[in-house]
Design brief:
Glutathione_S-Trfase, Glutathione S-transferase Yfyf (Class Pi), Chain A, domain 2, Glutaredoxin, 2 domains, Glutathione_S-Trfase_N, globular, glutathione transferase activity, EC 2.5.1.18, alpha+beta
């Protein structure tokens, strides 16, 4: 049995749960972090020394880093579904997964903690404005890509890139701020909403 450690309010946990559901895999989940079991406990740090969720546990041990977990699940159980087997198509999927983690995510941290999940200490107007501007600028890159494909991030087929970017697109759409007019992203968001798994794990109504 696969086990996931992490709370459902975490965007990174939601990526993994969405991937599990797309692959039709059974799993157990335990709440850890932010009001639940402490991720700074020796027990948890033995599984992930970074003290962050999610962590996947299977018969081979613990695995952390959400995008890596998603890749592992798709590679092991997907048989080409969600993550292509051929090197070049797979690299395109992984390119956009890495872009989400290293280029998109760093832009929105301050704005989201100020506006989307109000947090003490995140009230500097200049920093909020800079974060919103950077976030919109990064999302414009995604908009250009989606305008090219007319479908999904890596091309015609739905892949892991759409899972990791889908939760990020929802966060951008749901945060109360001034958003750039990005028609391809808006159309993509509407298409994602047609997937039951997106409704379950990317939208706000997460249990």
């Amino acid at each position: 049995m696969l086990k996931i450690l992490g709370r459902t309010s975490s965007l990174n946990v939601r990526k993994v749960l969405w991937t599990l559901d797309e692959l039709g895999l059974a799993y157990e989940r335990e709440d850890w972090g932010m009001g639940f079991a402490s991720t700074k406990s020796p027990e948890f740090l033995a599984l992930n020394p970074n003290g962050l969720v999610p962590v996947l546990i299977d018969e081979q041990g613990a695995l952390y880093e959400s995008n890596t977990i998603c890749r592992y699940l798709a590679a092991r159980y997907g048989h080409g579904h969600l993550l292509p087997v051929e090197p070049r198509p797979r690299a395109v999927v992984e390119q956009w997964m890495d872009w989400q983690a290293t280029d998109l995510n760093p832009t929105w941290g301050y704005a989201f903690l100020a506006l989307g999940r109000p947090t003490p200490g995140y009230d500097d107007r200049d920093k909020i404005a800079a974060s919103v501007e950077a976030w919109n600028r990064a999302m414009a890159i995604l908009d250009q890509r989606l305008a090219q494909t007319g479908a999904h991030v890596a091309g015609h087929d739905f892949t892991l890139a759409d899972i990791v970017l889908g939760v990020s697109v929802h966060r951008w759409m749901a945060t109360p701020m001034e958003r750039a007019n990005l028609p391809a992203v808006a159309a993509y968001y509407a298409r994602l909403k047609e997937r039951p798994e997106f409704g379950r794990w990317a939208l706000d109504e997460v249990p």
